[in-house]
């Protein structure tokens, strides 16, 4: 199975090699490494690895924890092949090529792009958070792994942001800028694994995709909502 492993490590020569060797010794086959952040002598890296299903993740965590200065921020299952920002242009081309299905195309693709479990496009009232949320938003489209009804965070759709619910589910939310329409992406908490929260780099990527899709789709976004509910 594919795993995403996020680590914070000292940004100095040799440390990345130590992490890579530890992953290999533990049984992981590295598929991709993405640098999310380099700041103040520290780096945040995402490793996508092929992990043998019978192996114990605890061995991997113990090995990484033994490296001086290294912290494991999350380990979780990734669905599909790892993706990079270079594929965002291809996704936007698909949205533009079939604008009638543009929102559905975006929603279905985003979980794979961000190593998430599911996503939904929902119309959220501007005062929804102040009224307690509670899953009352109107869902226009949901990806195939989304629960029915999807548990949505209490959020006022004014800006892109990340958040974590009480049960441990991590969310990234980005507004389309029209009538309370937002794209919500979720990583669920599943023992014994623990997903990492959405990094600012990932939130920015989601926001850019949503903004570009909003420009492409224009008035078609007004059709997403109660008249075309799928969930």
From TrEMBL:
<dbReference type="InterPro" id="IPR045865">
    <property type="entry name" value="ACT-like_dom_sf"/>
</dbReference>
<protein>
    <submittedName>
        <fullName>Amino acid-binding protein</fullName>
    </submittedName>
</protein>
<feature type="domain" description="ACT">
    <location>
        <begin position="4"/>
        <end position="77"/>
    </location>
</feature>
<dbReference type="InterPro" id="IPR002912">
    <property type="entry name" value="ACT_dom"/>
</dbReference>
């Amino acid at each position: 199975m594919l795993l995403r492993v996020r680590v914070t490590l000292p940004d100095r020569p040799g440390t990345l090699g130590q992490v890579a060797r530890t992953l290999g010794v533990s049984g992981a086959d590295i598929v991709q490494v993405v640098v999310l952040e380099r700041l103040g002598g520290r780096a945040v890296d995402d490793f996508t690895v092929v992990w043998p299903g019978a192996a114990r993740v605890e061995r991997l965590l113990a090995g990484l924890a033994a490296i001086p200065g290294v912290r494991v921020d999350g380990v979780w299952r990734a669905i599909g092949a790892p993706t990079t920002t270079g594929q965002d242009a291809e996704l936007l081309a698909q949205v533009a090529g079939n604008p009638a299905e543009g929102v559905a195309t975006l929603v279905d693709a985003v979980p794979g792009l961000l190593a998430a479990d599911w996503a939904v496009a929902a119309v959220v009232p501007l005062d929804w958070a102040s009224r307690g949320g509670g899953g009352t938003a109107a869902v226009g489209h949901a990806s195939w792994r989304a629960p029915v009804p999807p548990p949505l965070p209490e959020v006022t759709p004014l800006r892109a942001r990340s958040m974590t619910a009480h049960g441990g589910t991590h969310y990234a939310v980005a507004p389309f800028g029209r009538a309370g329409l937002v794209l919500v992406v979720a990583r669920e908490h599943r023992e014994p694994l623990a997903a990492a929260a959405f990094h600012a780099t990932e939130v920015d990527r989601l926001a850019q995709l949503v903004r570009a899709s909003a420009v492409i789709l224009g008035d078609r976004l007004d059709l997403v909502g109660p008249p075309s509910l799928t969930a």
